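Page 37, top half.
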Amino acid sequence: TGAVYLYHKDGTEWTQTRKILGSDVEVYDNFGQSVCITGNNLIVGSKADGAAGGSGAVYAYMMESTPVGEDTVPPLAGDFDGNGKVWTEDFVLFVTQFGRQQDDAGFESIYDLNEDGEVWTEDFVMFVAQFGKTSGTAKTVAELSPVGKNQNAELSVSIHTRATTSLSSEDREFTVELSVENVTELRGYGLTLDYDSQSLEFLGATAGEDNLLNKAAGATPLFLVVSNPDRPGQVWIANAVSDSKLAKGEGLLASLSFRTRSRPSDSPLPITFSAVELFDAQLHLNSVSAENLMKQLQLVPGQNRLAQNYPNPFNAVTCISYQLAQPAFVTLKVYNLSGQLVKMLVKENKPAGWHSERWDGRNSSGRTVASGIYFYHFTASEFSKVRKMLLLK
């Protein structure tokens, strides 16, 4: 036999308010084995070893309770691993719960951010709004995550331009594909992209066709793309599988689309990646350096092309632009209506990229030519193109 005593605290004094015997289990069965603290009242449940109404042992259960006060940091919505920051590892965890309802096995209410009994699109939108936020107890991933299984992973990038037929804004669109190799076990990844928003426009990102995570037949229901609201030109990207089909080997991680805001130069692209975070099945981390990936890459056209001169007609100087998909020996000549050579503008090797030449309406002797129609002929290896222009005075 035994008993449980309930007490009430008044100031520093405790006063017994109730005694519960093992035979009272039927009366207090609603307590079960629960314990709670309400104000200054300590409530414990009772349970008899014997049948209801009979004798038996009485158990008291105690738990610690921390009141929310001025020194308590409130929970950060979306911080599922409790490290004080809503980041890639939280996204990986969120993906594993996406689509589950409260009646499903394994459902965890912490991921149901809008508390409607289902982890769905609304919760993802709320999670995206929280992404990147921190609390006062934030710790870095490196402080919390043991070294993962992808320590030999290496990154690579490639650039692809659109092969269009005119020098429109579309001609300056390009994609950067980020790939990885030597992966042992990949459940998800995250990366931070920085670019010069003055010279580039970010058009969006996708996981890309036949990406590494999907090659393993894994389900990737969500692809995270979040622009940092506090830093123009910075984007957070993450992807993860929602099942147990992990990726390995090599393949594409993400395809990023951009448009240049002006004619591209021969300088390296103003795009950088911070270290890419790779997570294995246990969410153990490997940070793969991507600092020097873009330094040796330049944007080059998808094909050779000669543009119409601008302005046209012109009365003083006009500009003739052309582009080379590969280094080539280039000639650019101006002819009159009689087919006579007026001036050789270019006759030299040129690197791949975008180029332009100016013609001031003078011939090879430096004399100003008469008004009228002229032709300019461009050659680059096997490529040849002729256009006409009108000089007015």
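Page 37, bottom half:
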Amino acid sequence: MNWLNISLTINEFAWGWVNTLKTRSIKVWAMLFILLVCLITMILFGYISFQSLKQNLELQYKQEADSVLNQTATSFDSSFQTVENFLEQLEQTIQLQQNLDSEEFKTLFNTYQSVIPSNGSLIYGYVNDRIYIGNDMEVPNDFKPFNREWYKYALLNKGDINWTVPYLDYFNQTLVISASKYINSANNNGVIGIDLQLNELSKIISNSSIGENGLVMLLNQDGTVIANRNSYLIGESIFGNEYRKIIEQSRMDYIPLEIDGKSYIIRSSNFKRNGMNIITAISEDELNNLLMQNLIPILVTGVICILIFSVIGYGLTLIWMRP
């Protein structure tokens, strides 16, 4: 009888132990399942949040860049158009007044200098083998107009208004670009031009910004930076031999590009009258930093919600498995 009781006791203990293991095993698997579901949910939530936030930020920055590009391009285009109109008016005046002597030419240039557009700095000309400067500046004997780029360009492209690359002005010792035009009439022959100081052009950009670290730049026909906020990269050819290709691609859509060792997304617009280009560049580092700043609170909130869901799910599992 004793042996029977012992046997029954052992059997009951064994079955209880097995049931306990089963219960624990089910709890473990339930916990693992809940953790797996939470992990997958967290990964999907993080990925969807990242992609959605990234697209929204990129769209916001691109809309800002497009607005800056259009406004800046309009401002520059207006400045260039004003200078070209001014040169054409001076040319027409010289064409109409065929019998001006040297003193009358001086008076003419001084008159035009007094009403020169605000973005211009100096008007001048080399007409009938004499140099005229709008502010009556004394011309050194060693100054040779025919050695200057503005003069050479005008002779090479007669009938057109020509724009130079940036150079150090002989008279003011400041960086300028020049617009020049060849004139030829019965009694007057030569070249007239206007200098634009680069710091004046940069003022157009000074109030334009894309985020905190974005760039807005004016590039000449050869890809040299001639205007930028804070004079950054002025005079440098930032795209090298790839300039034409990059400009063509960036006119169609934004393209990734490295400038001065930093990653940007750029877009460009062309000035057909002189071949110059305006570039807007979105800083990818700034975009990524802002993305993480906005993403972290979302992820933290998501993790907290998932942890709460896990605890609730585990508690419900325990209640369901309660005998």
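Margin note: The helical segments are 2-96, 102-114, 149-156, 198-206, 243-252, 284-321.
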